[in-house]
Specification:
The chain contains 10 helices and 5 strands. It is of the alpha+beta class and 211 residues long.
Length: 211
């Protein structure tokens, strides 16, 4: 299963903004973006003095930012876009809704993980059940009324033993319902665009793929 294994901080620096790819570290002084907010590479410091980016460049950067936030590679992201085109409604909103429905993202949204990357690993290691069945595929798309639960054997691990106390102060999005004490969550509905709080201008992505 292909995935990006390079530096997460370089991705934030390339996009010129924090993408919060490393969980709590992004809120600490150790965050590399706080110390070096310019783009990575030999000419990173000088890029801010270059001429204005073209429309294509702006669209490309928005698409790359969305990919990096959700941890999706190009081929899979293009496939999600193709699916979004076939759904009724706005293509951009459909695309974001599809990305939000990924199991690794839902695990992150519940607060079971500090980042989507960590959520992906937890899912790959088989720590969650979806509707009572073990799920090990991060790209699984959840549906309304699906129930995601931490497996009984996994609850014995130190990480999950301490989790209920942490989740008591967590607030899941409106389209999710969290039972912190039982380490269980339910997808009460599919998210609307207003309920998705990612800093993405999805119309630019639609324009990029519509060229």
């Amino acid at each position: 299963m292909a995935r990006y294994v390079g530096s997460k901080c370089k991705l934030c620096r390339r996009e010129g903004e924090k993408l919060f790819l490393k969980g709590d570290r992004c809120y600490s002084p150790k965050c590399a973006f706080e110390r070096r907010s310019y783009a990575p590479g030999m000419h990173g410091r000088s890029r801010s003095f270059r001429r204005k980016t073209s429309d294509y460049g702006v669209q490309l950067r928005e698409k790359q930012k969305a990919r990096r936030i959700y941890g999706v590679l190009e081929r899979q992201f293009r496939r999600y876009f193709s699916v979004a085109v076939r759904y009724k409604g706005l293509t951009g909103a459909n695309l974001l809704q599809t990305l939000e429905r990924r199991l690794d993202n839902v695990v992150y949204r519940f607060g079971f993980a500090n980042s989507r990357d960590q959520a992906r690993q937890l899912v790959l290691h088989g720590h969650f059940d979806v509707n009572g069945r073990r799920a090990r595929t991060p790209s699984t798309l959840v549906r309304a009324n699906d129930v995601i639960t931490v497996r009984e054997r996994s609850r014995k691990l130190a990480y999950f033993k301490d989790l209920p106390g942490t989740l008591e102060h967590a607030a899941a999005p409106e389209w999710l319902s969290l039972d912190a004490a039982n380490l269980q969550g339910e997808v009460t509905s599919l998210p609307s665009r207003e309920q998705i709080d990612v800093p993405i201008r999805e119309q630019l992505i639609v324009e990029y793929y519509s060229r």
